[in-house]
Amino acid sequence: MHGKLPSRLAFLLALLLSFGCAQVSLAATDTDAQVAEQASQRLNINQANQEQLTSLPGIGPAKASAIVDYRSSQGTFNNLQDLQEVRGIGPATAEKLQPLVSF
Asked: How far apart are CA 63 and CA 72, in angstroms?
């Protein structure tokens, strides 16, 4: 009887550990899916038109026009730092835009 107890205990322990690993794996998959979904919902600064840009906080018609003009003359934006080169967009506005835009 004592010989079966350790093997059953080992089996249960292995089962519990595999379940725990599966939970971690599922959590990672869920996180990856959330990140992908959020990225797909972001507005691409390099493709958005003036009307779409005005839907962003702190971006009115004048700043949206400045973004489009800057993009036309200087090329695509690669990051928030590039976006701050547009007149009227400073660190505070860039911080608000960070979770809402992609490049």
From this structure: 14
Q: Regarding the domain with residue range 43-102, which homologous superfamily does it belong to in the CATH classification?
A: Photosystem II 12 kDa extrinsic protein (1.10.150.320)
Instruction: Provide the residue ranges of all domains of the chain, joining segments of one domain with +.
Output: 1-41, 43-102
Tell me the three state secondary structure of residue 35.
helix
3-state secondary structure (DSSP) of residue 74: helix
Give the pLDDT confidence of 45-62 residue by residue, as tens digits. 999 999 999 999 999 999
Residue 102 has pLDDT above 70, yes or no: yes
Which residues does 54 contact at the CB level (< 8 Å), separation at least 6?
60, 61, 64
Q: Alpha-carbon distance 35 to 42, whole Å?
A: 11
